[in-house]
Fold this sequence. Notes:
383 residues; 2 domains; 13 helices; 12% strand; Alpha/beta hydrolase; AB_hydrolase_1; hydrolase; hydrolase activity; AB_hydrolase_fold
Amino acid sequence: MALPGFPFPSGAADYDDRRRRARLRSTRLGAGWGRWRRARLLALRLTLVPLVALGAFAEYMGLDVLPEQDRLARTEPSVLPIAGPSDLQATGTAVFDLVGLGVLDAGDTARALPSLSRLGSVWAVRYDNSGIDTKVISDLIVKVTDAAQVTDVVLAGHSMGGVIALEIAKHLHQDSGGKRVRAVLLDCTPVDLNAVRPESRDQGEEMLRWMGWVPGARESRMLRLAVEVYARHDRFVGGRYVIRGAEFRRAVDDVLRSKILNTDAASNGLIEAQFKAIVAGGAVDDLRALAKPAAGKPRPAIVFIRPHNPYDDPVVDVQYSHQVLIDQVGGVRGTLLVVTTRTTGHANPIERPQEYNTVIEQQVVPFVRQLWRDQSAVASAGH
Length: 383
């Protein structure tokens, strides 16, 4: 009979957890299997791993990679006006500024260098976030200068931007009809991969390996977040690999604001293309092409801006680049000017605008103008 207030027979009071566990054992997966039960269960569980991984990969592609691919497919290079010429002698010249690895837009750098307006009207090049095509950029420069009725061009490249500037200069020098490249300014530019210091070179080569075998690595913001935070590990990792929580959160916040959520940040694909431009090693060939007159156009001036102490530049071996430039465009009848600075580091005009503007004003502008006058006089005498 049932006890008052309880719907079960009195025998139910003897029930304990052992009966529940026995019932679970009798109904769980593989309960009726005899031989090789454990091996069969292990094999079954292992088959679930690819399914879970495939689901995670689908989420990674759908939420992270594909939307970024779609956004990058709509980007294109552009040039932005910064300042008009500050000197009557520069009214027929346009200066185009190009920035280095990991930066998309040269606007801030060009604004930090008002002295460039002594050479002509100043424009900032904004790269295509899906990659770099120097022919497209050179054609854009021709279109802009045609509209402004400008025939002479000066290109200024900072760090890796100098490699891009040299390739654009070659296109303009050899293939652009009436456009004349007056000068190419190289700020701590690595003329080939050997000019990149080993630590930075290793980081770049590691990046290319990741880009080569990780699906979606060129677009993934998740991978970018991980890589950028790791690059700042010196901020939050203490002795014996202790992570300082507050500093780690600040590093993550910095990366999210400046690299992930910022639409003006360079994409993984652009950084890959920028580093490949150095790896390809075409700068030396471009220098050789610029060292020869083409279609009646004179050779452009090549200006190399570097720290006086080469070790003040932790990224580029400026002494190596310096020697290559002497070999290619220096000498008694060369077109090379090397400017050494005292307080600058690696291509940092935004941090050291005063010294950059001083050397441009006092050394670069007079050299470029004098070379142009000399070449014009020779051309006139030849006629």
